[in-house]
Amino acid sequence: MSDESKHKNTPNIVSEPMIAYAAQSSGNPFYNLLGGAKSMKLSNDFDLINIARKGFSKHILLALAKKISLNIQELANILHISERTLQRYDDDAIIKTEYAEKAVELARLYTRGEDVFGSIDKFKLWIKAPSVVFNGEAPVTILDTSAGFDMVFRELGRIEHGIFA
Question: Which residues have C-beta within 8 Å of that of residue 12, sequence separation ≥ 6?
Fold first, then answer.
């Protein structure tokens, strides 16, 4: 049998293990911060995208705020919503998608902070302490903008690699 005839009979199938393409499991602490509610099942990034597109309930936002030690005023400032408006929502009411996006960013940030500092409690102390790097402001006060989130993420990278201002 010639080499040419061998190739004609071989099906054109890639033999790679499927596990290489499986989505992340729910063991990620990021999912645990957002997935505290029984009604919200997060097992991978696609579940998170779908839920964020629909929006989160007030209950989920408040559960996240409690886990990361933010009061309702701090949460409202970060979300760009008045505290009073946030309080008026029913617990099961779905709050706008843009607020869900901010909640996802908060969960990502706090998960990253926990990784860098070794504990969520140490990160919570750091994020609320004024810092020279942030012009004397506490990092949590600049989270009302995407640039603020970027600055805090970059600073976490510097801390992780031992690069100080």
Answer: none
The average pLDDT across 93-97 equals: 87
Q: Kindly report the pTM of this predicted structure.
A: 0.76
- DSSP letter for each residue of 97-148: HHHHHHHHHHHHHHHHHHHHHSSHHHHHHHHHS--GGGTTS-GGGGTTSHHH
**Quick check: 80 and 60 in contact, CB under 8 A?**
no
Distance (Å, rounded) from C-alpha 139 to C-alpha 155?
10
Q: Strand, helix or coil at 95?
A: strand
Percent of the chain with pLDDT over 90: 51
Q: Is 150 helix (H, G, I), strand (E, B) or coil?
A: helix
Q: How far apart are CA 16 and CA 28, in angstroms?
A: 25
Distance CA 140, CA 77 (A): 10
The encoded tokens of residue 26 equal 């729910």
Residue 50 parent element (H or E): helix 45-54
